[in-house]
Amino acid sequence: MSLMNRNSEKFTLAGHAGSMEGLLDFPADTPRGIALVAHPHPLYGGTMDNKVTQTLARAFVALGYVVARINFRGVGASEGVHDHGAGETDDMQLLYEHMLGLYPGLPVALSGFSFGTFVQSKLNERLSAAGTPAERLALIGSAAGKWAMADIPADTILIHGELDDTIPLSAVFDWARPQDIPVIVIPGADHFFHRKLNHIKQLVIALWHGDKPASTPDDA
């Protein structure tokens, strides 16, 4: 059963591999933006109801965004079979286009957890190449070292658990270091952020409206 917030609505979207089931979460007032949330790996129990995914949805609702999630192909009532990220990125792009059709002109944020971070990094790569990059990214438990993550913008909120044994923190540092992207580390957190979920929500809300990093000359 889907984890529903108070202002939630189920929907179905036609995807490249068949119909996809999704969930919309609405803010209390008129949305100020759209947030797409991508779930962890389908072959290891990942669904749009994952607790980290749900936490991201609640954070963006609190920020005033309408939030859209889908079950990737082969998960729940979504048709098709797992496509190792390529088809999932195609489907997430369809969701992006669908939401812009419903809410034209609103900025679109991309967020995800684990495998979902790979999908969102690839989607933002596509959007950037088309001249329409996402407003901002929030990536939790980034899949660095597991999948070929695309480069991400400097203002990305990148959160990882200190004790993650699925995607080691060292792999995230190795990926983020050449991009000069700060990594926010939650002490004592494992890959699924057991007993640490509130840190994710609080950090995303607190940092989202903060000043974005600007390009500056080298420090004197």
UniProtKB/TrEMBL annotation:
Coiled coil: none annotated. Residues 50-147 form the Serine aminopeptidase S33 domain. Signal peptide: none annotated. Pfam families: Hydrolase_4. It comes from the Bacteria. This is Serine aminopeptidase S33 domain-containing protein. It comes from Janthinobacterium psychrotolerans.
